[in-house]
Amino acid sequence: MGKRKSKAKPPPKKRMDKLDTVFSCPFCNHGTSVECRIDMKNMIGEASCGICQESLSTTITGICQSPV
């Protein structure tokens, strides 16, 4: 009698890399002054500079939500 074939384990899922949340400002060129926030409930992303008070907000599209 032969052995049963063992079932191959599925490959591990790839985790998405964490995104940066602090950037340099494109308006005043001050390093690490722009903070980004993502509101997943309302699907809105916001970036604001703490030095020159510039801000930008936009709707979020196309994000795949994977379990972490």
Automatic annotation (TrEMBL):
Intracellular or extracellular location(s): Nucleus
One example GO MF annotation: RNA polymerase II complex binding
Chief subcellular location: nucleus
Biological processes annotated in GO: transcription elongation by RNA polymerase II
| InterPro entries in UniProt | Elf1, T_Elf1_sf
Question: Keyword Transmembrane, does the record have it?
Answer: no
Q: Which domain of life is it from?
A: Eukaryota
* Gene Ontology cellular component terms for the protein in this record: transcription elongation factor complex
- What UniProt keywords are attached to this protein's entry? Metal-binding, Nucleus, Transcription, Transcription regulation, Zinc, Zinc-finger
Q: What does this protein do, in the record's words?
A: Transcription elongation factor implicated in the maintenance of proper chromatin structure in actively transcribed regions.
Q: Which family does it belong to?
A: Belongs to the ELOF1 family.
The protein's name = Transcription elongation factor 1 homolog
